[in-house]
Structure formats: C-alpha cells, structure tokens
Write a structure and sequence with these properties.
The complex is a heterodimer of chains A (308) and B (285).
Chain A: H1 11-38, E1 41-43, E2 49-51, H2 55-62, H3 67-100, H4 107-119, H5 122-133, H6 139-146, H7 163-175, H8 177-188, H9 192-200, H10 205-216, H11 218-232, H12 237-243, H13 256-265, E3 266-267, E4 270-271, H14 274-307
Antiparallel strand pairs in A: 1-2, 3-4
Helix pairs in contact in A: 1-14, 2-3, 3-7, 3-8, 3-11, 5-12, 9-10, 11-14, 13-14
Chain B: H1 12-42, H2 47-52, H3 66-74, H4 77-108, H5 114-126, H6 133-142, H7 149-173, H8 177-185, H9 190-197, H10 202-218, H11 221-226, H12 235-245, H13 250-280
Helix pairs in contact in B: 3-13, 4-7, 4-10, 4-12, 5-7, 7-10, 10-13, 12-13
Classes of the chains: A mainly alpha (308), B mainly alpha (285).
C-alpha cells in the first residue's frame, strides 16, 4: 500500500473538500475579487464594461463630488474606531479583571448578564437607544438630573457635534462583552503559581495586574484591537437604523459602511452606482487589509520575538 | 516556604475588595440591562403611563396590550419569524455539514496542498464578506435567487465556512490516528471514518453553531440588499421597516422591539453556556 510511486489524488479528499470550497469560492472569494475588478472598470456603451485602470479610484479620492464625502466617512470611521479602542476595550479589560478575581463568587451570573446586549440585533439596540435619548420620553434627562446635570441634556442624536460620538458610545455599550470575554479567557489562562509567587514577594494587586498579568495577555490585546478595527470599518447597521441611509444630521455620522451602501444601492431618487460602490468597497478592503497586515506582521511578529 | 502556604488574610481589606468588586459589577450589569428592561416594561403600559411613569411596573390601571395588537395587525411577524428560522437553521446545518467534511479532509489526510487549502479557506476569517456585496447582488440576479431565502442561506454559509473550518480542523487533529487506522483495518471506507469522527468533535460543532447562529439571525445587511420583498423578510428587516413606519406610535414601537428580542434572548438563555465557553475556551485564538 505504501508504494513510493505517486498515487492519483484520492477521490474521497476531493469529495470532502468540494462542497465547502465551491460555496466559499462562489459566494465569497469570487465576489470579493469580482468587486475589486469592477472598481477598475467603467460603464461603456450598450451596457458593456471597459477597463479604466485607476480612474474610479482617482475620481473617488480627488473629485469635488466624491472626495469630500469619502474623506468625511474615513474621518468619522476613525473617530468611531478611536472611541472603541479608548473606551470599549479598556472597560472590557476592567470588567474582565473584576470577573477573573478570585475574591468574589457569582461572577458567571454577572458575565452572562453583561454579555446580553451583545447578542441582541443592532437594529433593536439602535431603536432602544433612540427611545432612551428621545427628548419626548425624557429618560436621559431624568438620568442626568439624578446626578445634578439635568441642564446638559440635549437631543444628542440630532446634533451634528455630538451624534457620531453618542452613536460610538451606543456601539461600545453593546459590544463591550466581546473584549470582556476575550480578556477574561486570557486572564483565567494565567497560571496561579505566577500570581501567588508575586503576592508572596509582596506585590500589590495593582502591580500584579500591570507587571505580570497584562504583559502575559498582550497577544489578546492585539486580537481585540484587530477585531475592533475590522468590525468598525465594516459597521453599518447602527448608523442606518438610527440615522437612516443619509447618516444625518448633515452626514455627520457617515461611515464607510453607510457611504458604500448609499452608493451601490442608491437612496431616495438617486439610483445605485455599482461601479463606484465597488470602488468604495476596494478602499474599504485596502483599509481593512492594512489593519490586518499591521497586526500580523507588526504586533504578532514583535510578540514572538519577545517570547523567544 | 512554598506558595501554597500563602493565604490572603480575610481582614477588613479583603471584605472591602469583595464589596467593591460586587458594587462595580452590579452597577455595570444594571447599566447593561436597564435600557432593555425599560423597553420591555413599558411595552405593557398605556401610552399615558409610558410617559407619566416610565420606571413604574405596569399595574392594573396602566396595563395595556394595544401595542402588541397593532404589531400583530400591522406586520406579518409570523411569516418573518418563519423566514428567519428557515435561514438560520438551514445555514447552520449546511455550515456544519460542509465545514466538518472539509475539516476532516484537512485534519486526516496529508495530501499535497493541504496547508495551502487551509490558508485559502482561512482568508475569510478576517476579510468581511460585505465588501463583495456588489458582485453578490449580481450573482444572485444571474442565478435567479433574488428575494429568495436561498440567496441568504448561501451567503451565510460562505460567511460561516472559514471560521468553522479553522475551529473544526483544530479539534479534528486531536482525534487519535490509531482510531481511524483500526477502523480501516476493520474495512471501514473513508466516508465511514468521517461519520465515526464526527461524534467525537460534538462540542466543537456546538461552538461553531452557536457562534454562527447569532450573527445570522441578527443580520440586517444581506436581507436589506438581497431579500427585501415582503415574502422573504426576516424578523430583523421586518422589525426595522415596521419601526421606521410606526416611529411615532410608542406602544407599537415598544411592543415590536420586545417581540423581536424574545427569540434571541430565548436562544441566549438556552445556549449562553456554550457560547461563553466557546468564546473563553480559546477556540478563536
């Protein structure tokens, strides 16, 4: 049976691989490549598509019609991401630190309850917060008044200056469960001996956390960062649900996802433009790819070098 | 002195720490649940009571199901629910079947191009499928699948395969080779061996199912783009459209939000253990 001659490729391996590879290739890889290709074409006469090089990208990045909207969406998306990195992930880490501490019982209950908003649809979360923040209902006013800050209540989602930040916080509120669980898993995985040894040496809880635990969970910090990045630059539902396809007020909450949707799908009387849509998807692809590659070659490589 | 001799003394500082941790966790839990509970609570009240006393429990005076009445009259939530169920269950079953088959091939056989195939199937873990939407829309038009549940199922299967194959391959590699060789000696075919391996990775199959279930059920993007006709609407798209139309009818809005949350909260209650264990077991590392 173990002859050295090259055997024909075993048919059962093909049978096992074929269904997954076919569906995945047809509905994921082909559309991604075809979208990238489409961004390099322009509509010709009679419904044909002609190769146009980077013309669409140049239009998108520099023309008066497209460029301001694009840069606005890119800027807003980076703000959206920054709020997640600066607020969501530290809170996730803090909650994970509390949940992993051995001093209290019943942490499983807290963990399950805190994760609840994460499993709900963004559509529902968006509407729930629209109601909570609605001046008509006055919940946010009551809440602020409780802390003596009632006079600062504003219709935040309707103001250009605050809508994006408030939406970022809503998203943080919903998704904090994911970094929390990932950090928790990493913290639980740290061997007890390391912690006890440090305690015996007289280290305080604060020092144990930052000097011992945190360096050990750095790989998870990287994973959380890259997941946040990809998720944020792919976000759409929350803005669409609360502010509509036009990402109001006055495009102040427009991010890449809503810009992409509006462009290829059309809105109100504006017909969809698949080619420019594909071009925007191309830009999103490049942004996401850059983030993922930075993580893989910047963060992970560095960590591996540190380990050995 | 060994580390095991060390015991934290349960002095005042210890109890302070216990209390502080509980307080912080309790406050955050309240913050996480308050908006959801407020909506559910007020969905059972009359319009006046919603505004007059939003924080009170509904009582005999304020109890009112008018919102639910309007939702049941105004939208076809029974149909939407059926559509969501078909799409989610259909996609999950196909993901589990085709991914476990592919993972078995990657884990059990040392064929040429094994690593390359593994990498190819892993690309989709990091690149969101939404970026290909323009071409997916064209593809569904070409295949005559527009406004069908099949369009959604196939897209979700393609979206689910990369992570599923990644997780299942890791688990299937741990199945001892002796077991398979023993089966081969007994004359089992390679297909029979796959069916023998499958039950051994049941926990991993559960993890994959739970991971995929929630994003598929909750998705708005693909129902909006590929299947927005009345007959193919999912619960989330149906709720989104209904909420947009009834935005000023607070009873209807609160009732529809509550109704739309029930299925996923029920699923979460049933599967939260698996979900959290999956996420914390390092399956996604």
């Amino acid at each position: 049976m173990n002859s050295k001659r090259r055997k024909p490729f075993p048919i059962h391996i093909v049978v096992f691989l074929a269904p997954a590879v076919l569906i995945y290739t047809l509905f994921m890889i082909y559309p991604l490549i075809d979208s990238l290709r489409l961004g390099l074409y322009q509509a010709g006469e009679g419904g044909t598509e002609v190769f146009a090089g980077f013309t669409n990208y140049r239009t998108l990045l520099t023309s008066n019609i497209w460029a301001p909207t694009l840069w606005n969406a890119v800027k807003n998306n980076f703000i959206f991401f920054a709020v997640h990195m600066l607020v969501q992930n530290p809170i996730g880490l803090f909650l994970a630190a509390l949940l992993s501490s051995r001093v209290v019982r019943g942490t499983a209950v807290y963990r399950t309850l805190i994760f609840t908003p994460t499993v709900l649809s963004v559509v529902l979360i968006g509407f729930i917060w629209r109601l909570i923040l609605s001046p008509l209902w006055g919940i946010s006013k009551d809440f602020l008044s409780f802390f003596g800050l009632g006079q600062f209540n504003q219709p935040w989602l309707g103001l250009e200056s605050s809508a994006l930040i408030v939406l970022s916080f809503i998203s943080v509120w919903q998704y904090v469960g994911i970094p929390m669980l990932l950090f928790l898993a990493a913290l639980i995985g740290i061997p007890d001996e390391l912690i006890e040894a440090a305690r015996v040496d007289g280290a305080t809880g604060w020092n144990v956390f930052w000097r011992i635990k945190f360096p050990l969970i750095l790989p998870t910090v990287g994973i959380v960062a890259v997941l946040t990045f990809v998720g944020n630059f792919n976000a759409f539902d929350l803005i669409y649900t609360t502010q509509g396809a036009l990402a109001g007020p006055n495009f102040s909450t427009d991010i890449m996802g809503t810009f992409f949707f509006r462009t290829f799908f059309g809105f109100q009387l504006q017909p969809g433009n698949p080619i420019m849509g594909a071009t925007i998807a191309g830009v999103m692809f490049l942004i996401i790819l850059t983030g993922v590659l930075l993580y893989l070659f910047g963060w992970q490589r560095r960590l591996q070098r540190l380990e050995f | 002195m060994t580390a095991s001799h060390y015991r934290p003394r349960k002095g005042l500082g210890h109890w302070g720490q216990v209390l502080g941790t509980h307080a912080a966790l309790l406050i955050y839990t309240a913050f996480a649940l308050f908006p959801v509970l407020l909506v559910v609570l007020n969905s059972f009240k009359s319009r006046r009571a919603i505004f007059r006393s939003p924080y009170a429990l509904p009582n005999r005076e304020t109890w009112d199901l008018i919102g639910y009445q309007k939702v049941l009259d105004g939208a076809n939530f029974g149909l939407y629910f059926r559509n969501s169920l078909i799409v989610t269950v259909g996609a999950l079953l196909i993901i589990l079947l085709v991914s476990s088959m592919a993972s078995h091939a990657l884990a059990a056989y040392n064929f040429r191009g094994n690593t390359l195939m593994g990498l190819y199937l892993a690309i989709g873990i990091m690149i969101p499928i939404r970026l290909g939407t323009v071409s997916i829309l064209r593809l569904t038009v070409a295949l005559n699948l527009v406004d069908t549940l099949w369009a959604l199922i196939l897209v979700y299967v393609a979206q689910g395969i990369p992570l599923a194959v990644f997780i299942l391959t890791q688990f299937m590699r741990q199945v001892p080779g002796d077991l398979k060789d023993a089966a081969r000696i007994d004359g089992a075919s390679e297909y029979r061996i796959y069916t023998l391996v499958l039950p051994l990775v049941r926990p991993a199959l559960g993890t994959v199912a739970v991971f995929n279930m929630i994003p598929i059920w909750n998705d708005l993007w693909f129902p909006l783009v590929l299947a927005s006709s009345e007959k193919s609407k999912t619960v989330i798209l149906g709720a989104q459209v209904f909420l947009g139309q009834y935005v000023n009818d607070w009873n209807a809005v609160l009732a529809s939000l509550t109704l739309a949350m029930i299925p996923i909260i029920a699923l979460y209650i049933i599967f939260s253990r698996q979900l959290i264990r999956g996420l914390t077991s390092g399956a996604v590392k």
